[in-house]
Amino acid sequence: MRAQDVAELVVVEPREQRRVPAGIISARDIITRIVAFNLDAAALTVGDILWARTAAGHVTDGIHETLERLFATGSDALPIIDSDGNLAGVVLVDDLLRALAET
Asked: How many domains does the chain have?
């Protein structure tokens, strides 16, 4: 996360030739679930701290719908899936607000 300068990562699991979002891991998750308890991060897996968030947007969703779904998750990022359920990308709250400001 530090190398890519990102605060959230989408974790995917392979299902029948697809990459389906399983959840998001955030810097906040790492702080509140590892650092706060003085745990050894090297001894943990992503699955140990993953907070599964089943919400995802669709590539055909509008900006307002996506923003509402994003706010409902309490996250700053929302996985976006295509019609087959594959991860197509991630949209950030900043991306959506910037798009709204441009309209």
From this structure: 1
